[in-house]
Backbone:
């Protein structure tokens, strides 16, 4: 099953009429002029809404040219799931092939030409939200830089990371009404999406991490590890950021990384992932009839294929094998 099947299941309209295509898309995204370069009209729009973000899947079928009005207080993030698009924003041209991402924030004008059978995953990112996240990062200049950049195409590796984050976003939105306790994870992923995009506007990627104040190390490394362990164990089924982990032990993010690598032989995130896998295994052994996907999502695993691979690497067996052994006694 496609990672984005839950999004495709939320089709809000499908039409083979030119005039209706224009009216319905304009109502959802932005008023625009729409020109068709073929007669195969098959417009489909799917949509998922969360409290802060909207994600669309949009297809026209035929090749089209779109001339939207300048976006009002939001950016659009295009991910080319199939086909590609050519974007000219404020005179800057970008060809966005399949698998790549474009952050679009035009201030004067924008033209888009979609290839035949192109499907775009489009996220509507409100500027009041990115402004808030940039302040929380301690880097409000990233938000200002984004507003001054009409179009930024992400590198191939960053685009792949964006696709992975979108799949987690879709899985959480699909699961939140079924699995109690996922709302904090959804908020966490929303903020992470905005943070990831903002950091793409940093002059030196990775140099914009949140900074703690001057640190005074008054406890031994072992004591810090004990505090870290207690903090993480209390939050295994909740979103935990590197910054929160560092703050819990009065270290900077860089110092936390150094501590975990020197004392635990791995990064804080890898260590946290292992503890969450341990917790899932304990839950499966205690209740083998429990829904595996629900347990995994509550512990921060939103892609079951990758979860199963992590689980097998840690325990030498798949979760299904653990379940069968627990049932058979």
Residues:
């Amino acid at each position: 099953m496609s990672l984005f099947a839950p999004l495709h299941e939320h089709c809000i309209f499908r039409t083979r009429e030119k005039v209706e295509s224009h009216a319905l898309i304009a109502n959802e995204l932005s008023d625009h002029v729409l020109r068709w370069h073929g007669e195969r009209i098959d417009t489909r729009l799917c949509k998922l809404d969360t409290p802060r973000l909207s994600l669309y899947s949009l297809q026209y079928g035929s090749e089209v040219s779109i001339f939207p009005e300048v976006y009002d207080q939001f950016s659009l993030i295009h991910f080319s799931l199939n086909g590609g698009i050519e974007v000219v924003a404020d005179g800057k041209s970008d060809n966005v092939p399949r698998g790549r991402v474009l952050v679009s924030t035009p201030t004067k004008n924008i033209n888009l030409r979609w290839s035949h059978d192109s499907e775009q995953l489009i996220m509507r990112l409100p500027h009041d939200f990115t402004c808030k996240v940039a302040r929380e990062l301690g880097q409000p200049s990233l938000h200002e830089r984004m507003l001054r950049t009409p179009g930024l195409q992400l590198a191939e590796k960053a685009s792949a990371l964006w696709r992975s984050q979108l799949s987690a976003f879709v899985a959480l939105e699909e699961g939140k009404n079924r699995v109690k306790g996922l709302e904090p994870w959804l908020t966490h992923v929303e903020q992470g999406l905005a943070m990831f995009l903002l950091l793409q506007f940093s002059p030196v990627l990775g140099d914009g991490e949140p900074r703690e104040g001057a640190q005074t190390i008054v406890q031994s490394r072992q004591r810090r590890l004990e505090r870290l362990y207690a903090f993480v164990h209390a939050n295994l089924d909740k979103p935990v950021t590197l910054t929160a982990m560092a703050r819990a032990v009065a270290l900077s993010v860089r110092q936390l990384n150094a501590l975990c690598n020197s004392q635990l032989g791995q990064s804080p995130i890898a260590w946290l992932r292992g503890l969450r896998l341990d917790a899932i295994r304990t839950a499966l052994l205690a209740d083998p009839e429990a829904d595996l996907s629900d347990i995994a999502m509550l512990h921060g695993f939103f892609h079951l294929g990758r979860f199963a691979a992590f689980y097998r690497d840690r325990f030498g067996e798949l979760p299904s094998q653990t379940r069968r052994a627990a049932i058979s006694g």
Observations:
- The longest strand covers residues 74-82.
- DSSP finds 13 helices and twelve strands in the chain.
